[in-house]
Amino acid sequence: MSFQLRREEVLDASGLAAMLEESPARAAQAILLAAGEGEVEAQALLGQILLDGHGIAQDQPLALRWFGIAAGRGHLMARNMLGRCHEHGWGCTADATIAAQHYRIATDAGLDWAMYNFANLLATGRGVAVDHLQALALYRRAAELGHAKSMNLLGRYLEEGQVCPADPVAARDWYRRSAEGGDFRGQFSFAAVLADEGRIDEAVIWLEKALAGGNLNFLRVASEALSSATDPRIQALASRYQLRTDELSSNA
Description:
Layout: H1 7-11, H2 13-22, H3 24-36, H4 40-52, H5 60-72, H6 76-88, H7 96-108, H8 112-124, H9 132-144, H10 148-160, H11 168-180, H12 184-196, H13 200-213, H14 216-226, H15 232-251
Helix pairs in contact: 2-3, 3-4, 4-5, 5-6, 6-7, 7-8, 8-9, 9-10, 10-11, 11-12, 12-13, 13-15, 14-15
């Protein structure tokens, strides 16, 4: 089947995003056309749909190539995705050192996602030397730009007082902002704070949100953490977390 696409349909980024939801195959054709015509946003998006296999056959090496093309033309998210590919071995041999180089370039240009990813490497010593001070600074920069996942990790540093003075009030606020921003780990962190304050009903609401959005690795850890809860409302949620963990594990 061929598709007849208008020029404005090919180049309208918001239209492509809507089309990806409604008709992934049609959107893939539009993205292919726009990428071939040199539209850098389409080139980056083509890399993403090739990586995900969304509307097009999954091809990680080709995704890596298109990310490289878009990154070479200054597209920051494509540069960040090059880092992700090299970090996780998507379409290439995993190499955290190369990933860190890409993240650093996009970080220096001001991309919040790159700050978060680079900070994760600094916090764990993958591809770079461990540097919690720099990781904390990057999480803070990204959080102040509105990055929800960074908000949660900034809250963790502040709660634990790691390489900074402990500040539970500020930590609570960052957890709340992360939760409201949609990060499932932030939702879990904020729920823990609320539970400690005795606000169990509110904690349960956020735990349910985290359950709905959490991935397998998160659910495994969260399920274990909730297993020791004494409140029956949280005990019931712990069982649901375990059921969801088992479901995702069986489908992995």
